[in-house]
């Protein structure tokens, strides 16, 4: 039997608990309402590190004014149980008041990589992400940190930030965990009614359609983007926000696919905004 998971809220408590952990320490930052995608990150950290720290923080600064901050799903009791079962050693649940006290005015910003895709339609989103991840990294001081490929641009931005700011942390990006029908797991899937839930598989179908075309020899990125748009548009409950076939490293839109590329999209299913992606190797 391993020790029960420690749970801390304040930064002071975290600082007292941190030296009790054996190293190397693996860190999994989340916004909670955990699913199998989050737990796969915890398990991977468990395999590679002596101790695992998880944070649950619905970070207000990464939500736009018309986004879902207030209704973002929460279930801390359930999350605690799942993390304990998954073998996490320390859970940190910071408060917005301590993370952003009155007069807060320090921000971390990654430039080029945050401009396209999510950055173009969610202004300020990545500034919130990179700022909070910096604060979490500074407090937890992990040797490794685990992120999901589901949020491909976020993973790329965090990698770049870690390199640019010389954080002594290895960033590990883990594969997207999907439902049996292909829908990428997301805390936001809980917003979907049964009809919308069925319709939501269209993102994966669109990505797979473009991937199949690529595997059959199609290299024209505009054709791949069009194929994905057509699949999305065939679903009455779906509204396409953007579709992309971009260079994997720069995230710039491609004309021809000649090296590693990222197919990605953002789609509204009813009022729920979903994102997904696949890599073309
Ligand atoms: P979130 O709680 O949505 O902020 O996600 C916390 C971490 O879990 C991020 O690194 C996400 O990329 C990752 N994640 C979310 N969904 C999945 C998934 N379906 N598969 C793998 N990782 C995921």
Molecular structure report:
This protein is an alpha/beta fold and 281 residues long. It has two domains: 6-174, HUPs (Rossmann fold), CATH 3.40.50.620; 187-280, Pantoate-beta-alanine ligase, C-terminal domain (Pantoate--beta-alanine Ligase, Chain: A,domain 2, 2-Layer Sandwich). The chain is built from ten helices and nine strands. The protein has helices at residues 11-17, 36-48, 76-86, 96-99, 118-121, 125-140, 152-164, 194-199, 202-215, 221-233, and strands at residues 6-8, 25-30, 51-56, 90-92, 144-148, 170-174, 238-247, 261-269, 272-280. It has a six-stranded parallel sheet, sandwiched between helices. A three-stranded antiparallel sheet has the order 7-8-9. Helix 7 (152-164) links the parallel strand 5 and strand 6. The model has no long low-confidence stretch (mean pLDDT 98). Residues 30-31, 37-38, 40-41, 147-148, 150-151, 174, 176-177, 184-187 line the site of adenosine monophosphate.
